[in-house]
Amino acid sequence: MKAIFLTNYGPPEVLQVGDLEKPVPKENEVLIKVKAATVNAGDCEIRRFDMPVLFWLPMRLYMGLFKPRIKILGQELSGIIEAVGKNVKRFNVGDAVYCPTKMNKGAYVEYVCLPENIPMAVKPNNLSFAQAATIPTGGFNALYFLKKANIKAGDKVLINGAGGCIGTLAVQLAKHYGAEVTAVDRAEKLEMLTSIGADLVIDFQNKDFTQANERYDVIFDIPNKSGFVGSLGSLEKGGRLLLGNFTMGGVLFSLFVNFFSNKKIINGIAPYHQDDLNYLNELLQKEVLQPVVDKGFLLDETASAHAYVETGLKKGNVVITFE
């Protein structure tokens, strides 16, 4: 079977097509014929090994100190279950599913075996495989932070970096909770953000929201690029600043602010729970959430897909398709 191998740390060209033996599921595993996978900023960071200082050494030891030991990337996928281990209870052969992968089992491969006890859901009939593959990473992260913010109907919510895989779902979730949503991103993405429910849009290249007079109940800064002080100054009393990119600086600053201020900074790393995926799946079935797919690439074009993601121009998600 075909797979995309990470041959070294570096530019997109280090991703090369190769062959791998088709896996056989263990007793508690399902064998998935992959139909679609995604390329997001996190995949590109791992490929370049562009990691925060806090995670650099442990991740390098895990991934491979000098050259990659884990050679297949891709954090999420959709596909059809082709075989199941004898102890599998939740799924059957022929089920169309989507799920995140494990760190040592990437998605850029034609077949993959995964344990049935990871978060995994049957794909709603109203979604394509490409759309379903985009849900886990963006959905788990958007849901985790917005639940922490305890958004109420009528809250004013600003989402910085709204045009990516997390942001497009965060806009729709915040609207579902009854918020007035302002979405911040590049000019090229603003029409798309309006189409998925954003009430107001801001081109960050022409306007700095932290310099305006608007105040928000919640600011979700997904890339952590708006500046801590400026973002806090744009919050109402009792407002919440959500930091989507976990850094040591963010942790230290949040400890100080949360102790001395009536405003709150929330950061962390989103856990992946089956209950959360079930909730997202229900919203997808009801068409409360609409996945945003920008471009599709074939498996042997994965390096080109990585290069496109790194331009910063992708709207929502970039998908690798296997047919």
Description:
This protein is of the alpha/beta class. It has helices at residues 41-48, 53-63, 129-133, 135-149, 165-176, 190-195, 228-233, 248-260, 274-285, 302-309; strands at residues 2-6, 15-19, 29-39, 76-84, 96-100, 111-115, 121-122, 156-160, 180-185, 200-203, 216-221, 235-243, 264-266, 293-298, 317-321. It contains 10 helices and 15 strands. The strands form 3 sheets. Strands 3, 4, 5, 6, 7, 14 and 15 form a 7-stranded mixed beta sheet that branches. It has a 6-stranded parallel beta sheet with strand order 10-9-8-11-12-13. Strands 1-2 form a two-stranded antiparallel sheet. Strand 11, helix 7 (228-233) and strand 12 form a beta-alpha-beta unit.
Summarize the SSE layout with pairings:
Layout: E1 2-6, E2 15-19, E3 29-39, H1 41-48, H2 53-63, E4 76-84, E5 96-100, E6 111-115, E7 121-122, H3 129-133, H4 135-149, E8 156-160, H5 165-176, E9 180-185, H6 190-195, E10 200-203, E11 216-221, H7 228-233, E12 235-243, H8 248-260, E13 264-266, H9 274-285, E14 293-298, H10 302-309, E15 317-321
Parallel strand pairs: 8-9, 8-11, 9-10, 11-12, 12-13, 14-15
Antiparallel strand pairs: 1-2, 3-4, 3-6, 3-15, 4-5, 5-7
Helix pairs in contact: 4-5
Low-confidence stretches: none
Biggest beta sheet attributes = 7 strands, mixed
Q: State which percent range the strand residues make up.
A: 25-35%
Shape descriptor: globular
Q: Mean pLDDT across all residues, rounded?
A: 93
The run of helices and strands is: EEEHHEEEEHHEHEHEEHEHEHEHE
Category by helix and strand content: alpha/beta
- The percentage helix is 25-40%
Q: What is the rounded Rg?
A: 20 Å
Number of helices: 10
Instruction: Give the distance, in angstroms, between the N- and C-terminal Cα atoms.
Output: 13 Å
Counting DSSP E segments of at least 2 residues, the number of strands comes to: 15
